[in-house]
Amino acid sequence: MTAILKNFIGGEWVDGSGVTRNINPSNTNDLVGEYAKADKAQTEKAIAAAKAAFPGWAQSTPQVRYDALNKISLEILARKEELGRLLAREEGKTLPEGIGEVARAGQIFAFFAGEALRLIGEKGASVRPGLDVELTREPMGVVGMITPWNFPIAIPAWKIAPALCYGNTVVFKPAELVPGSAHALSEIITRSGIPAGVFNLVVGSGSVVGQTLLDHPDVAAISFTGSVQTGRKIAQACVLSNPMKKFQLEMGGKNPLVVLDDADLKTAVEVAVNGSYFSTGQRCTASSRLIVTEGIHDRFVAAMAERLKGLSVDDALKAGVHIGPVVDQSQLDQDLRYIKIGQDEGAKLAFGGELLQRETPGHYLQPALFTEANNNMRIAREEIFGPVAAVIRAKNYEEALAISNDTEFGLASGICTTSLKYASHYKRNSESGMVMVNLPTAGVDYHVPFGGRKGSSYGAREQGSYAREFYTTVKTAYTYPG
Ligand SMILES: NC(=O)C1=CN([C@@H]2O[C@H](COP(=O)(O)OP(=O)(O)OC[C@H]3O[C@@H](n4cnc5c(N)ncnc54)[C@H](OP(=O)(O)O)[C@@H]3O)[C@@H](O)[C@H]2O)C=CC1
Ligand SMILES: O=C(O)CCC(=O)C(=O)O
């Protein structure tokens, strides 16, 4: 029997009113841990603690914030192997992917430690004689964070680090499916020297803990990453709440990768395999539409099938594994449902899509590649969020670009080409927030903005110094010196 890991509210570790079990998707007999679930009253306590701590933290010096964020970064980086293992065990990313994600979280805290020192206001001349105008940024207040299961430490890091950096206090609700990394990160944050109440962890369901954050008048802002359906509910709740809340939403994608006749075939296949299938395709930036021009189409499909045959799908913690399991039974059911939908729609399942048996009972799915798909099919329009990609044939670059942009989403897009002309044209004309040339659509730097257009994102960008748009509010002060 292991101890039930607690929530962190007002500077104390507290028991919950229920328990959530964290199950290893590579081996469903393996219980990663048990975590206390907060209820509505405990979430309200966390909000009250964050509210009480806000004035003090908002006034803290940049040095205090730098020291805390830097300390968090150093501990995460020093423990990246151990934490990467926990992440891979609870979410199903491979061990190298898990360690990579943890390292990224550490680097994000280091970046925002530096940002705490760089927040300087502006002073300008007024259009009216004799007046001074000053622009300063102030923190928002209590920020509620609602995060998904697919990046259990990086996404919390890129919300919590800027929130603390700019002087906000935090109530953090991780996805119930992956509380382990969230709990480990929270422990590290509690050791950073920040005052009680500045950071609070409340594990629990979206419908209870999430909803309480949305309904509460003392929560000034909500940062959310997850599905489009939940994103819409959050937007409505934030607008209808009194006072209205600031919110930012990072949601789905149906990201295109265009492969042109002049692409280097080997590069295109590596880019497509990485973008579509690594991290089990469970990335909002995953390439799920492979838009391939006539002259390279057949060679690309043959090379993809060959490459996919060589990939190992197995326990996320085993050495040499390329693709871990699907995160849980419900996501696996969704993937299988879409594989059936694709076949019923008339696309050809050129590779994979079968359930796999391994030594341990886990949610193992062979990566699936559809060909002969068109952009009107549901598999080309709806986010599947699994290791499933569809090849769509295009006559030429112009048609490929039109198909690429014909989607309700606009998170990431990519092109494989050796032509400077097409690469430049695509960068300018692709309707997405992030464009990649000869690189996978997934996998981004941590010091530059992350976010999309159309149905993928709403509100200010995350990451890099652009994050300050969300976590601060601008004050314009006029002075007449007399
Ligand atoms: N774009 C992306 O990055 C992601 C997209 N998805 C997509 O979403 C699908 C479902 O995944 P899922 O994890 O269920 O995504 P959700 O959008 O349901 O969950 C994301 C977060 O929102 C919380 N939440 C759910 N309902 C509410 C609510 N009414 N009020 C406040 N918070 C709420 C969840 O809590 P909890 O789950 O703990 O109840 C979780 O912390 C996937 O198949 C995929 O298509 C999923 C994850 C990331
Ligand atoms: O592509 C990445 O590295 C980040 C993707 C991401 O944030 C997501 O899938 O939610």
TrEMBL record:
Protein name: Blr5873 protein
Matches recorded under Gene3D superfamilies: Aldehyde Dehydrogenase, Chain A, domain 1 (3.40.605.10), Aldehyde Dehydrogenase, Chain A, domain 2 (3.40.309.10)
PANTHER family associated with the record: ALDEHYDE DEHYDROGENASE-RELATED (PTHR11699)
Active-site feature positions: E250
Domain Aldehyde dehydrogenase, first and last residues per copy: 13-476
Organism superkingdom: Bacteria
PROSITE patterns (alphabetical): ALDEHYDE_DEHYDR_CYS, ALDEHYDE_DEHYDR_GLU
Presence of the UniProt keyword Oxidoreductase in the record: yes
Similarity section: Belongs to the aldehyde dehydrogenase family.
GO molecular function term, any single one: oxidoreductase activity, acting on the aldehyde or oxo group of donors, NAD or NADP as acceptor
Source species of the chain: Bradyrhizobium diazoefficiens (strain JCM 10833 / BCRC 13528 / IAM 13628 / NBRC 14792 / USDA 110)
Keywords on record: Oxidoreductase
InterPro entries for the chain: Ald_DH/histidinol_DH (IPR016161), Ald_DH_C (IPR016163), Ald_DH_CS_CYS (IPR016160), Ald_DH_CS_GLU (IPR029510), Ald_DH_N (IPR016162), Aldehyde_DH_dom (IPR015590)
Pfam families from the UniProt entry: Aldedh
